[in-house]
Every structure is written in C-alpha cells, then in structure tokens.
Amino acid sequence: MLRLLALAIFPILVVSQCQPGDYPFETNCFSFHRVQGSFDETNRICSKTLGGSLVKIINIIENNWIQKLAVDNLDADYDFFWTGGSDQNHVGDWRWTDGSPFNFTRWANGEPLEDRHCSTMQVSTGLWFTSICDLKWQFICQYPQNGGGTVSPFSCPPCPTCSN
C-alpha cells in the first residue's frame, strides 16, 4: 500500500522538466534572456540551445503571465523584448515562428505597422509593437517541458576512465 501511495505522489512532485532558472507554464518552459540580438539571431539561440523558439503568446492569461515575469527577469533599461511573431513572409499575415497564425493579439494602438515585420512586447505594459527585425532586443525562449531544454551548446570528450 505504501508503494502505491509513493507512486501516486511521485508524479505530482515531478511537475516541471524545465532547465534551472526557467519557468514552467502549462506544457512549456520559458527562458528569459537579457542579452540582445536580432529577431533571427535570438530565434536561432532558442532553437540551438533549448530546442525551442521565441515565445508564442496564445491568450491574455499567458500574455499577462509573461509580462509579469518579464518585469522581474529582463533589464528594465530596455523596455522591449522579442516575441516569436512575424509577417516577414507575407506582409499583413502575422504568424508565429512555428508557422501558426495569430489567434490572439494585444497590439498597441496604431499597430502593427506595415514597414516593421517582427513583433515585440513592451515590458511595462504587456502591449505588442512591431519592430525592424534587425534591431537588437532582449528575448524570451519557449520550449516543451518534456522534450525541450535538453540540447547543450557544449560538448565534452568521453570519460577516459569509462569503459565502452
């Protein structure tokens, strides 16, 4: 009986499979980066180091949660960060880096602008603004809890004392 109780409790204790310092929300992990880069550079960093992409915001609850954590985890001197939205492939057709269309938006008044093709969020308000894709902003990566975040940018040689 004690073993069954332990097995029943164990899955509750192992809720998050995020990298240390990252934040779980629903089925994803979110990694906040103060370093700045262009839209494409930062999306590549998310892909190569975490197996993810720039953040995809699907509803107001997630938008508000991300904005609150951005206030706590990003540099206040830079009030914007990249999100994973772009209309680079077809002007006016805003899509996330995974190719899915926007089903939720939180554009500021007057946005999106036709001559700026990548999306940012303003840390202080949670509103979305378009930006020139080559500008350098902070960013947030998103990756799946049980499958992402395992790719390391470092490689180590095999252990010399281990037998193969």
From TrEMBL:
CDD domains to which the protein is assigned, alphabetical: CLECT (cd00037)
Superkingdom per UniProt: Eukaryota
Domain named C-type lectin: residues: 25-142
SUPFAM superfamilies, A to Z: C-type lectin-like
Leader sequence segment: 1-16
Keywords from the named record: Signal
Family matches, as Pfam families: Lectin_C
UniProt cross-references to InterPro entries, sorted A to Z: C-type_lectin-like, C-type_lectin-like/link_sf, C-type_lectin/snaclec_domain, CTDL_fold
Record PANTHER family: MANNOSE, PHOSPHOLIPASE, LECTIN RECEPTOR RELATED (PTHR22803)
Full protein name: C-type lectin domain-containing protein
Organism: Caenorhabditis japonica
